[in-house]
Amino acid sequence: MTAIDVRNLTKHYKVPIKQPGLLASVKSLFSQEYEEKHAVEQMSFQIEAGEIVGLLGSNGAGKTTMMKMLSGILHPTSGTCSVLGYTPWERKQEFQKSIAMIMGQKNSLWWDLPAADSFLLNKEIYDIPDKDYHETLNHMVEILDVKRLLTTPVRNLSLGERMKMEIIAGFLHQPKVVFLDEPTIGLDLTSQYAIRDFIRTMNSQRKVTIILTSHYMADIQELCKRVIIVNKGTKLYDGQLSHVAEDFSDVKLISIDLERDVEDAVLASIGEVVGRDVLKVTLQVPRNEIPQAIAKLGSLPVVDVNISEIPIDRVIERTLAEGKVRVNQ
Ligand SMILES: Nc1ncnc2c1ncn2[C@@H]1O[C@H](COP(=O)(O)OP(=O)(O)OP(=O)(O)O)[C@@H](O)[C@H]1O
Ligand SMILES: [Mg+2]
């Protein structure tokens, strides 16, 4: 069954053109000029019930705008979309009860109240029966291990703890489709794992259909078989993640700051040099060769080392560069 059907969805924002200077500001009070920003352009895709799809794209690619239209927060400029048979922006009550939009960068909980109070409020808003409410809440509180924090005012929770509460609030009414916009942004690894596990559980146990955006490759690799890559508002790729990121799954980046120059050949003997800016070097190294690489770095004039996952932007850049563009409409 198709859960989400998007056809030619387009969103242009009208933004005022701001000329520099005071005179221009005064003039703009009388005649304001606008330009159109093409945030999402003719996007089409279908998602089956029970899928988890990753929406990937660089900053400003149009991901959040897309999710806002799918969840009914924004009207599109043109195009159509059906989520579980509803047109999102009509905001029918049954539609609102069937979906959730969870944004890592936005707070939806009452700041001065404990999360437990916000959950109760959601129970009223969504008209959740007592039994379902307690069962769902207990289950989620257990998986995310936040029982002792339920009575702490939200403003006193850490970022990771607050995000777990946001996620519980979003899933409490047992939505069938959930839009997760950067649910792990800024979180430490332990919280990222916990949230990832939770999302996987909700998908496998409850068959929740999920669209996920994240700037962390690990989130996407752990959760999504299929990805839709967007670039400047248009769809660049729609298909298996393995097709675009297979060879990235087992490598990490080692970024080093050098005290003085080191020959390229020496660096190349440690790992593939994928970035070099005078004394700043980025090496790509297979995960299982990291210890040896670190050991080799010991003999170089290194002042700082940082190991990280491959950023999603590299996957996107390469998809663009290699012309791996394949769009199944
Ligand atoms: N309310 C708005 N008014 C005008 N322009 C907007 C508005 N919201 C977003 N935009 C513009 O639309 C484009 C897409 O923004 P969007 O937030 O959807 O990107 P994104 O893919 O979610 O990026 P990020 O990864 O940084 O979250 C950007 O150029 C942005 O500046
Ligand atoms: Mg965004």
TrEMBL record:
What are the record keywords, sorted?
Answer: ATP-binding, Nucleotide-binding, Transport
The record's listing under InterPro entries reads: AAA+_ATPase (IPR003593), ABC_transporter-like_ATP-bd (IPR003439), ABC_transporter-like_CS (IPR017871), ABC_transporter_ATP-binding (IPR050763), P-loop_NTPase (IPR027417)
Q: Which GO terms describe its molecular function?
A: ATP binding
Q: Name one Pfam family in it.
A: ABC_tran
Domain ABC transporter as annotated: residue spans:
24-257
Q: Is Nucleotide-binding set as a keyword in this record?
A: yes
Which top-level group of life is the source organism from? Bacteria
Per its UniProt record, what PANTHER family does this chain match? ABC TRANSPORTER ATP-BINDING PROTEIN, ABC TRANSPORTER RELATED
Name of the featured protein: ATP-binding cassette domain-containing protein
